[in-house]
Amino acid sequence: MSADKQAENQAENQAENHKAERHKARQQKVKEAVDAKIAKAQTEKGVLLVMTGNGKGKTTAGFGNITRAVGHGKKAAVVQFIKGNWPCGERAVLEKVGVEFHVMATGFTWETQDREKDTLAALSAWEAAETLLSDDTIDIVLLDELTYMVSYHYLDLDRVLTALKNRPPMQHVIITGRACHRAILELADTVSEVQPIKHAFDHGVKAQLGFDY
Description:
Largest sheet: 6 strands, parallel
Radius of gyration: 24 Å
Structural class: alpha/beta
Order of helices and strands: HEHEHEHHEHHEHE
Number of strands: 6
Helix content: 40-55%
Distance between the termini: 65 Å
Number of helices: 8
């Protein structure tokens, strides 16, 4: 190998080593920042999580949390608002491992077109939710599509807020649905917004068993 080639290789190796050292230094700073946050976050309490936005996946994410909790031996319960009587894959699995379900079961409001019936059904489902939210043996509660019940005025906002505020201190709650009321967002500990980029339904693809529900 010529002296020039050796010098070129040496320069390349030095550049790579310098690049690796800079990367290590950056990652060390990231680690220190993360470690500091972990050290500071020592409070244990029931967390109110809101999954909102117009994108697909809010309910799926909520069920993911429920499944995780059950996997750790926690006691979980689910109240589904707006949902109809079609098959629910998550329910089929989770009920078998002891997760309590309460389903409003009237379907979408644009299908029923009956405000009185929907309001009564929402109140019935919410009464079940209130029972769960006062039970300190329940570790985590999913209130699926609750946001619509508030925005459509089927449920009284103050009644919902009171139940959420007065729940057992270690009980986690997940609320899903679009257009979550500002007061619930302010009360929440964590808020995630799911935004759509593309959706198969907008291109004529029907909702399919095992993927969409």
